[in-house]
Each structure stands twice: as C-alpha cells, then as structure tokens.
Amino acid sequence: NAGVTQTPKFQVLKTGQSMTLQCAQDMNHEYMSWYRQDPGMGLRLIHYSVGAGITDQGEVPNGYNVSRSTTEDFPLRLLSAAPSQTSVYFCASNRQGPTTDTQYFGPGTRLTVL
Amino acid sequence: KQEVTQIPAALSVPEGENLVLNCSFTDSAIYNLQWFRQDPGKGLTSLLLIQSSQREQTSGRLNASLDKSSGRSTLYIAASQPGDSATYLCAVNGNKLVFGAGTILRVKS
Question: What is the pLDDT of residues B65-89, one digit of tens each?
Fold first, then answer.
C-alpha cells in the first residue's frame, strides 16, 4: 500500500512551458485534491474531485486544469507556466471527503518556473 | 471567508518541556479541525482530527482541544522531544480545508 504518490519530485520550467504533475492513490479514495504551499501562506486549494468524472475549482484555480478519468489518478496540468506558479504542490486524498475523515498527503512536487 | 491564524510562527524549547500551539479561526461554522505535522521537504501527516461536536482529542503525548464558539484550538505537546521538531499546521474544515501558515517547532536536546 503506497498511499498517495506524486511525480516528479522536482521540476524546473521556463515561462510559457506546459507540464503535468502526476498524482495517484491506491486506497480507493473517492475524494482527491490539489494544494499549493507558498512560504508564510499555508496550503491553498487549487482543484478537487469528489469522484471519477467530477472535478471542481478551489481557491486558486487559475492557470491549472485537472481531470479525473479513474478513481486512482488525479493529474494537475499547468497550461502555460508563469513565475507566480513557483511553489510546492501537494496532492491529497480521503475516503469520502474532508468533512468526515482525515486527508492523506503525497510527498509533494517542488516546481520552479524561470 | 474563513481565515486561520497560528501563533506563534516559530517556537524553540528545551527537551522535556510541555508546550502549547495555538490556532484561531474566524468562522465557527465548521465540520472539524485537523492538526498536521510537516517535516522539512515532506508531505503532511495527520496528527489529530476533532469533529465540531467534540471538545478534545488525544493521541499519545498530543492533546488537541476545540472551542468552536470562540474560534480557537490548541495543540498541547507533553514532554517534548527533539523528534517533535517540525512544522505544525492547523486546518479548519467548513466543506473544504483552510490551512493556517503553521508553527515551526524546534526542540533542543
């Protein structure tokens, strides 16, 4: 049982490039979410999904796309990277949703946009 | 809009000391409150989850309390150890998690 896995661990992009951050969980959790963590600001919700085929926006969705074709995978796409997207990105999952049980976090992807 | 504040931002204590981390939030309409631990360069690990109907939760040397009406939670760590050194994050759940900026704890041996 690997829990929540994220790839890559580190990534450097140039402004305007696109890329996909991968997230997978093997716990059969319905709810998955993406956060970004910036110094002094805590974690902020980017997008979330309550199940396969269903996604919704969080607090800071601009510049990011998501899809949820399977229960296990929830990739985050940066369409045209900007320096403001330099951050640490965390994927999380939980069984039913954050209103009932705790979230499990992946190890994070540290992204730098030059 | 829910806002979560954690005080202090950083704390350094000698080994063995008991300590309290504070979390305050502006909107008391919450489902639960969670405390997480984050080690440098790592993800978050859940420590305690308190449902809105509960007053406290305990796990080993950790005790978290919740006073929803005043918008406050505390995390009490008993007999601190160097291995407790980490960032502690409070997250409040209205139907999405809103995080505080964290308290960086250093326990000196």
Answer: 999 999 999 999 999 999 999 999 9
